[in-house]
Amino acid sequence: MAQHPLSRCGVCLLLVLLQAAVLPARLCEAPGQAAVLRALSSRLLALAADPEREPDPSVYLALRLAGEHDLRREQQYLERLQDAFQHRYGRSLQVAGDPRHGAADTEHSTSTDVEWLETGRLALYLLGLRATCSPLEHKLLRSLVTWLKYYLEEDWAGSRRHGHPITSYYQYSLGVLALCVHRKRVREEVIRRLLAAEQHSKFGYSAGSAIDTEAVVAMAFTCLVQERLVGSTLAAELRAAVHGARKRMVEAQGEDGFFGNVYSTPWAMQVFIATNSCEAQAPYGRAMAALLQHVDAFSTAATLAQALPVLHGRSYLHIASMRCEEELDTLTPISPEPLSELPGNKTVRLVVECPLPPCPERWLYDHPVLVPASATLLDVLRAATEQGPPDFTFDTRDTPQGPYLSGVLGLEAQQQKHTYWQLLTAPSTSLQMGIGDYRPCDGETLILRLSEW
């Protein structure tokens, strides 16, 4: 993999290194980086405090898995999460009725099922509730578990039409992991669906292997075995699958130390932590070094939430055994310093490719775009609509990770067809940041390619 784009452009994140608190050592933790970890946790705490940001369960999980805390602010964030989820999941399925009603009127919906299913988000919320260490009211827990099991069954209904879950194997396996962490039994058929997909290599993207999906599946399998929620025969199959997944991750590790890319690497590292193999595996150490070298890539709340658990030597499986005793209530928020505006302008070449059958030709757009020197990719796209040929259009969708490129020139990424807009810098390096964060260099060529996953 090529050098990270941020390094090429010379844009670095300036961390405020505070005096390190004395924390208990963890074997899988980033060695000698206590001050850096504290600064990153403080930054996430500040981002979480922004009332304009939609609460994200993964952010709460990262705060709870850290070595230091601000317990008052964590409780406030939990209350925001509960408010967001209570309206939809505070009632039983029988009272709520079919959640699909009303979804068909969504403006850009191409599949009603995709609009109403949120298997992964509900799974993360359940994991977050377990991380509070407070016993949940039985009726609420039963309602949430029932909803998640319902989603798992409805999600799998997509396999009859598409050969894969309606959402994704990633979300589906998060659902299994969340049920396991709450020590709720999962039907063997549900587990074997994931096992068969793993055995038949169903997780790969057209551009490479889906490390993050395989990692979440491996953690779900590990949890089921550790919590003894499956019989001995199935447990042996799951252990073999986890061993195979970890081996493939090691084989796929790039020279830069990443498993896949900078954002999928934390998921792969969670597998090594969950299986107690981080200390004995040299690839884990190389990945940790690469993560620390490119820590500036994790600039949003959602991406910081991906990286912080492994930097603290924790995986989501730690949630199952959290005791929350004598927690260090010593963390304070640090707001990120705004990036300085660069003088002058830059020219970025923007190329749109569509190698898939629906497109009349492969190259749909190829023009230079003049933007301010500090412009992001999102700024480039906006400028392209105003400059040059008047036919350039694009659409975005708001996500916890920031704006997501959902359509270009009228061609929409469709989840049920497993298509997405891949972001690359020429000739073929995938960007490791979103359109709202990546800042191209002067003279750089950016490629938007409609791809399958």
Brief account:
This protein is of the alpha+beta class. It contains 17 helices and eight strands.
Outline the structure in words.
The protein is α+β, with helices and mostly antiparallel strands. It contains 17 helices and eight strands. The two termini are 19 Å apart. 43% of the residues lie in helices and 11% in strands. Helix 2 packs antiparallel against helix 3, helix 7 packs parallel to helix 10 and helix 8 packs antiparallel against helix 10. The radius of gyration is 22 Å and the shape is globular.
Topology, please?
Blueprint: H1 5-9, H2 34-48, H3 57-64, H4 71-89, H5 93-96, H6 112-116, H7 119-130, H8 138-156, H9 159-162, H10 169-181, H11 188-199, H12 211-226, H13 232-252, H14 265-274, H15 282-293, H16 301-311, E1 345-353, E2 363-372, H17 377-386, E3 394-399, E4 402-408, E5 411-412, E6 419-425, E7 429-430, E8 445-452
Helix pairs in contact: 2-3, 2-16, 3-4, 3-7, 3-16, 7-8, 7-10, 8-10, 10-12, 12-13, 12-14, 14-15, 14-16
Q: Please state roughly what percent of the residues sit in beta strands, choosing from under 5%, 5-15%, 15-25%, 25-35%, 35-45% or over 45%.
A: 5-15%
Share in helix: 40-55%
N-to-C CA distance = 19 Å
Q: Helix-strand pattern, N to C?
A: HHHHHHHHHHHHHHHHEEHEEEEEE
- The largest sheet has its strands arranged as 2-1-8-6-7
Please tally the β strands and state the result. 8
How much is the average pLDDT? 82
Q: Low-confidence segments, ≥5 residues, pLDDT <50?
A: 1-25, 99-115
Question: Count of helical segments?
Answer: 17
SS class: alpha+beta
Q: Compute the CA-based radius of gyration.
A: 22 Å
Largest sheet, in brief, is: 5 strands, mixed
| Apparent shape | globular
